[in-house]
Amino acid sequence: MSDEKVIANIKGLGIDMIDEASSGHPGIVLGAAPIMYALYANHLNVNASDPTWFNRDRFIMSAGHGSALLYATLFMSGYALTIDDLKQFRKLNSKTPGHPEVFKTPGVDASTGPLGQGLAMAVGMALGEKILKERYRINSEESLIDYNVYALVGDGDLMEGISYEAISFAGTLDLDNLIVLYDSNNVSLDGPTTKTFTENVRARFEAMGWDTLLVHDGTKVDAISHAIDKAKKIKKPVLIEVKTVIGNGSLLQGTNKVHGKCLTKEDIAQLKAKLLLPNEPFYYDEACLNYMRSKIAKRVDEKYKRSNIDYRDYVNGKCAGDKTLASYVFNNEFHYNLFDNDWHFEDHQKEATRNTNNIFINYLSHNIKTFVGGSADLGSTTMTYVANLGDIKASDYSGSNIWFGVREHAMGAILNGMALVNLKPYGSTFLSFADYLKPAMRMSALMNLPVTYIFSHDSIFIGPDGPTHQPIEQLAMLRSIPNMKVFRPADVKELLGCWQVILNSNHNPSCLILSRNDVLIHQNTNAKNTILGGYIYYKEQEKLDTVIIASGTELTYARNIGYELATKGLKNFRIVSMPSIEQYLECNDEYRNNIIPNNVKKIIIEAGSSFGWHRVTKDNTYYITLEEFGVSASQKDVLDYMHFSYDEVKEKVFKIMNIK
Amino acid sequence: MSDEKVIANIKGLGIDMIDEASSGHPGIVLGAAPIMYALYANHLNVNASDPTWFNRDRFIMSAGHGSALLYATLFMSGYALTIDDLKQFRKLNSKTPGHPEVFKTPGVDASTGPLGQGLAMAVGMALGEKILKERYRINSEESLIDYNVYALVGDGDLMEGISYEAISFAGTLDLDNLIVLYDSNNVSLDGPTTKTFTENVRARFEAMGWDTLLVHDGTKVDAISHAIDKAKKIKKPVLIEVKTVIGNGSLLQGTNKVHGKCLTKEDIAQLKAKLLLPNEPFYYDEACLNYMRSKIAKRVDEKYKRSNIDYRDYVNGKCAGDKTLASYVFNNEFHYNLFDNDWHFEDHQKEATRNTNNIFINYLSHNIKTFVGGSADLGSTTMTYVANLGDIKASDYSGSNIWFGVREHAMGAILNGMALVNLKPYGSTFLSFADYLKPAMRMSALMNLPVTYIFSHDSIFIGPDGPTHQPIEQLAMLRSIPNMKVFRPADVKELLGCWQVILNSNHNPSCLILSRNDVLIHQNTNAKNTILGGYIYYKEQEKLDTVIIASGTELTYARNIGYELATKGLKNFRIVSMPSIEQYLECNDEYRNNIIPNNVKKIIIEAGSSFGWHRVTKDNTYYITLEEFGVSASQKDVLDYMHFSYDEVKEKVFKIMNIK
């Protein structure tokens, strides 16, 4: 059996999938099949019959349009994919969607498609391995965790800013468990990279603390395999540039025309002839299959058995008392009752929620082995720095604080990678910079990953830094992401409730929105009610006419307006605190109709865009919100300028309620 | 007079501004003042009394937290800023906001603050200069346009992915009119860059086609100035790394503690003593002022005069017939009546709006000298490539197509830079990747820049590429940006109307949302009505009961449902086409109450998030929208899965209207 024969099978299957789907990307299938074969057959430590084995090597197809290539490779490697599955490529509910989707296909370790995300997630997985390795040590030499992370990237991935950020981060932290295979074909979707991408990629990586290797001929399995061997021994992250020809063997090879369009029947026929394959759709050679599968098994079986024995010994011995290990790290389900701790908060004390949040960050970091995170160079002001547990550094990954640098976008994707290896990660920056992370946050939501994004400096209340730093539409943006939960607690008690929900959310990301300005601890807030997303903070004394709804610091506005209304003898109003619209919308109709009834006035007070509140109130809604950019001035002047001072908000409420 | 004395004045003023405001960033003021002095006194070709001179050198303070340093430098350079203006630092309606804001302060060429944006805008300005230089040539040697672009960046800027993208782009296009001054002090907000940023920055830039220079001692004006001299002669973009000490002279110098907090009174006192300044707030030496101002004048006066003569000659001669020159390039006001052309479109013809849009892109590129743009490597599928006008290349900037590469985020900021030098730029990618551009788009909106963002593949209708490529919440995200106008035309006639608005929008960015799927050309659509944002597409025959509102391709759904309703004898419904909510909201109440009256049912049909439509309909609203992620499948299966097939949408409408 020759390697070339197996590769021909992979190519043939990939091309047939695209042809059957009438859609897909043949260029990478024909160009990069030898790379995939070399990696899976000779290096990747995986067990196709246990695709979620916790100690497997990870592979990320960062060039997500290479899905057909990935699926064909997985099929030949023995994963639970059938020829019928391959025929269902890009079809509804198949195991073979248009771009790779984690949890849908055995052997797919991350969802990819938007370029750059996959590479940055691979960095997160590599960092995750380093962290887990320290936290689950068997002895000073060995750990339960010991694997490499591989990614396949194209020119497009490397042009994306997020990939630069992630690469620079990986270089700084010296992630020598990371090997990136660069399908270097000098062509991107629109044309040759001479028009767009003329940098010396390897020199750039070397400048960023990586080692690099070059494989001149990407059709040579031995050369690729030799390079991977070398890379595994290098004590730095490694980029292997493999020179390939896009669409190799197609009549359109070497051009952008073969990137994303189906091959013609004629082209397929001549290609298969070249590859010595019968011109028969979905043909594969059983002997090739067995050859590739046995290569993997021969290499991995021993390690796999040993890993499971170690795990059993570990669980029964060293960590018998560590519930988080079995329940989370290795099964990806996590339950934690924060209410078991005896929390005590002083009512009426004033403190910014970014500060009180530091209590929880510290508590969780000390109590949950997998809870780890950091900040994009704003930890000292988002207040997410953990005391006494040290930093995660190139020389020592046993600490707790990750220094992401000013790399918000990569931070998001790195958190995704960490969550994919079953850590419970968090990252922080200012709310206005949430924009920088959005593409990665969408991926968290799409992959159902329990990542926690912490955003402080949550509104115009920050004052003089001006409109670039004053979020307006960011809350709306976050709330609009499907499967994302946004929490904006009013005080430390609500914050406790938010964390209780966040910690037990195994299948969605969360945003925790915190204030820089001081808030009082309310008498009427309640951690347990917070879990419901919205609850009655103050109940009307007579027939209800108006519901005032607020979140975060604006609950103080609502409370004080409530006092003034009561002083005036008003008894027909209710105040609802709404720390999480998404949690509230999960409550049943009865609850919601009870909290915010129809046919009464609803007044929403929030220092942000009105977008998204229509989900909460169906009729008679008045918005006291912000729809324009802020301004640089003192807090007081900003609030005046934006017509959002307490007095002005109060007057608006009074007017809506027809009070003089 | 010594340079050091002037620099001491700049430092003293910067520190006093921060002290007076009780907020700001002293670290960069004290570290980078010599860089700013060297640049302004010895190199930057500007005329402080004509700060918008079209042929001035541009300077961008990319490290926007260096605003106090910038304002102090501008003051010493003779711009129309008074000591009172400096005292108003970070106060409401001052000329000296917390971060630099273009059009608010004479001499400020771009708004900055979110890191990386400024550097990428500088790249856009440098590209803009290259393009304008070709388009406004006096003869084969000389052009009306001939200036350099300078930026000051810090470590934070260079960690951001957007800066990498922009740098790689600048290297590819060989922008030798760009000189970046790197305030290299090894400290960022959270601490030393040894923890976050260990790459060899100069080696990285060199790998990306830049030349680099190093100034070992950032307190030496001569060394800095000599480097800038050298850089101006180098036929590549140049990075000058200037080693500085953050907060130089403060008791906290060299640490992150001096980055963003006011100095104590004691620290200010000892600092001023060191600087040989009297300890007196807002002190400056008139002789220093005169010295610096005369240095600039002596260097620039001749060039300035010559430039204005050239301009007058040019306008009166060569380009007498070119209205766009005088009206736009040099005055930043642009009017164009697209309706003057005799457009003819065939009703009922079916074509995707991404295709029909190519007609306009071509027309405008051929007819408007300043209309120029490109795509982030998707031009061949967003269909924004201009035929017959060639590409913009490193060797020749006279073409029309910009190849941004897979660099969406930098594309946004580069477009901002181009708009800031009075081009009328556009850029294109898929709508789902709008996420990658968001931070730059927000800057367009904040700066009131007429940038056009073109997003094709506008909905789940794209089918098999799956959820990563299917926009859901993106339309809402774009609409939520203050001062952003979003257009989603139903067909080519509405597209014409959209372009008419976009071309004449001088003070806001626009998004043009286009379909990949074919749409028919409606009989009832209307280019001129499109300008109103929303209009009656089909009018009820009897008393109005229900208004069906749709945008883009979904107008076809509405139209067909309308036919079915009419067939059933229904006469009480109206169909409204809503290509732009923001345009519609600018119409007066009377118009809007007429188009979408209260107290009737409103049904919104749009293949995207419901967020934001509450601005259009105040009551009785039913949403047929999409709130969950899509799926990889054929178009038909995707629509079924998302309950958005024509039949299902029709059934929903019927149900809302109580029709069996």
Structure overview:
The structure is a homodimer of 660-residue chains. Chain A is an alpha/beta fold and 660 residues long. Chain A folds into 3 domains: 3-302, Thiamin diphosphate (ThDP)-binding fold, Pyr/PP domains (Rossmann fold, 3-Layer(aba) Sandwich), CATH 3.40.50.970; 338-520, Thiamin diphosphate (ThDP)-binding fold, Pyr/PP domains (Rossmann fold, 3-Layer(aba) Sandwich), CATH 3.40.50.970; 532-656, Rossmann fold (3-Layer(aba) Sandwich). The first copy, chain A, is built from 24 helices and 20 strands. In chain A, the strands form 5 sheets. A 6-stranded parallel sheet of chain A has the order 10-9-11-12-14-13, sandwiched between helices. A 5-stranded parallel sheet of chain A has the order 1-2-3-7-6, with helices on both faces. In chain A, strands 16-18-17-19-20 form a 5-stranded mixed sheet, with helices on one face. In chain A, strand 17, helix 20 (554-567) and strand 18 (573-577) form a beta-alpha-beta unit. In chain A, helix 1 (3-21) crosses helix 3 and helix 5 runs parallel beside helix 7. The mean pLDDT of chain A is 95. At the A-B interface, helix 6, helix 7, helix 8, helix 14 and helix 15 of A face helix 6, helix 7, helix 8, helix 14 and helix 15 of B.
